[in-house]
Amino acid sequence: MVHFLNSCKTSLFLEINKRNFYHMLFAKKELAYSNKIEGDVVVTRADAAINWIRANSMWPMPMGLACCAIELMAAASSRYDIARFGAEVMRFSPRQSDCMIVAGTVTYKMAAVVRRIYDQMAAPKWAIAMGACASTGGMYRSYATLQGVDRIIPVDVYVSGCPPRPEALLDALMKLQAKIKRQRAMSCLLQQVWTHIRRLHTPT
Ligand code: SF4
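Output (structure tokens, whole complex):
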């Protein structure tokens, strides 16, 4: 928690003034440190700063279960450059992941595993159902196949197609970024802290 608040504090007090900030945004120059802007302060809302940090550093948990996973792998190649979204760091550890990308057919056999890995991810966390199979079961209307991964985990964005192209996954990431930027991060955070404090002080 302390580490997280410190990182937010650092972002809040970026030493950039408004004029130079707009100049950097629209001048189509590479954003880099400039000693000319030293000493100035930009003021923003905590929500905006936290959401900006979260939306641009979504570390995916690649849940590749079938053919859609090949397209997921392609999205990480240099041609599609998923690093533009800060999402190139594919973590195979749920404790280091923010966004589960379910790519492929979810069988009942795997459903329990998917759910357990999702539970092990730290909040805030998001999920993308990539492809027809993950979204709805696809063509597998069978006793062995889960008819949509949203039956076991909350899904934020659905990607259509069989298989969807890597561009469709990048589009989903952009939609997820837009969703994250609308969230009320600070009030959720305070609510969680308050709930935790109350739990600590509730007699058992
Ligand atoms: S949606 Fe199509 S490509 Fe993706 S896992 Fe299902 S069958 Fe394979």
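Confidence is low (pLDDT under 50) at residues 1-18.
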